[in-house]
Amino acid sequence: MNPGTLFLLPTPLGEIAPVEVLPQQTLISARRLDYFLAENSKSTRAFLKALGHPRPINTLDVVQIGHYPDPQRVDEWLQPIRGGRDGAIVSESGCPALADPGAALVARAHDLGLRVVPLIGPAAPVLALMASGLNGQRFRFVGYLPREKSACGAAIRALEIASTTGETQLFIETPYRNVRLFQLLLATCAAATRLTVAIDLSTADEVVGTRSISQWRDAVQPTLAGRPCTFALLADSQGGATA
C-alpha cells in the first residue's frame, strides 16, 4: 500500500468563518480528510464543524498533539499516514509549523519519505509583512521576545540594530502582554525607527498601522489588550538605532 499524504491545514486567525479566509481548494481538502493531528482538539473540532465537514465531527479521528508535541510520539502519530491514510496537522490559528507546532512532525515525515503538502491560508507574520510597507525582500521572523522586561528591552535593541541593514524584524506576543511590549518598544527604539502594529489580521476587526516611533508616541494608542497582534520594525538606516 502506498503511504498517505501529510497536509498542513491552516485555520482562521480570529472569529471569522473559514469560508471567508480559506481558498476553496483548502476547504475541499479539509472536508475529505478524517485524520487530524491537532494542537488543540476542541478548537479543531469547532473549526471542522464551521467549515462544513460532511461527516459527523465525533466520527473523525482528532488527536491532540499539544503546543509542545512529544518527540517520542511522532512516529505513532504518523503511523496511519505511513499506512496509507491521508491526514493533516492543524494549529489553533494560522499555519502549522509557522509560529505554531508542526515542524518536528513535518521533519520526520520527510525522513520517512512521506509527501507533505502545505495548504494555503492565513499566516500572521506573512500578512503583517505584506501590509507593513517595510522591506519584504529581506526579513526575519523571531517569534516571541523574552518575558522579563530588561531581557525584552535588550532583545528589542538587538533587533533594531540588526534592522539597520535593511532587514525587517517581525515578532509576536501573547494578547495579554501586547500593551507592555508596545510601551517598551516606544521607550526603547529610536525616534525614526518605523514600527508596524498589525491587530486581528484577516478578521472584521483588523487594524494595521505603520508609523515612526516618534509618531506612535504622539498618536492615539491602538487598542491592543487581549487582541492577537504581530509587530514589525525597521530602523532608519540614516539615523541609525539606539545602542
Q: Provide the low-confidence segments as ranges.
A: none
Number of helices: 9
What are the secondary-structure elements, in order, as H or E?
Answer: EHHEHEHEHEHEHEHEEHE
**Number of DSSP strand runs:** 10
| Number of domains as seen in the coordinates | 2
**Shape designation:** elongated
Instruction: Give the DSSP E fraction (strand runs of 2 or more residues).
Output: 15-25%
- CATH class identity of the largest domain: Alpha Beta
Q: Would you tell me which CATH topology of the largest domain applies?
A: Cobalt-precorrin-4 Transmethylase, domain 1
Which bin fits the share of residues in helices?
A: 25-40%
What Rg do the Cα atoms give? 20 Å
Q: Determine the CATH superfamily of the largest domain.
A: Tetrapyrrole methylase, N-terminal domain
Cα distance, first to last residue? 60 Å
Going by helix content, strand content and strand pairing, the class is alpha/beta
CATH-derived architecture of the largest domain: 3-Layer(aba) Sandwich
Largest sheet, spatial ordering of strands: 3-2-4-1-5
Average pLDDT over all residues: 94
Q: Main beta sheet, described?
A: 5 strands, parallel
Task: Report on the architecture of this protein.
The protein has helices at residues 18-21, 24-32, 41-50, 74-82, 103-111, 124-132, 149-163, 178-188, 213-218; strands at residues 5-9, 35-38, 61-64, 87-90, 115-118, 139-144, 168-173, 194-199, 207-212, 229-234. The chain starts with a strand and ends in a 9-residue tail after the last strand. It has two domains: 5-118, Tetrapyrrole methylase, N-terminal domain (Cobalt-precorrin-4 Transmethylase, domain 1, 3-Layer(aba) Sandwich), CATH 3.40.1010; 124-234, Tetrapyrrole methylase, C-terminal domain (Methyltransferase, Cobalt-precorrin-4 Transmethylase, Domain 2), CATH 3.30.950. The chain is elongated, with a radius of gyration of 20 Å. With 243 residues, the chain is of the alpha/beta class. The chain has a five-stranded parallel sheet, with helices on both faces. β6 (139-144), α7 and β7 (168-173) form a beta-alpha-beta unit. The chain has nine helices and ten strands.
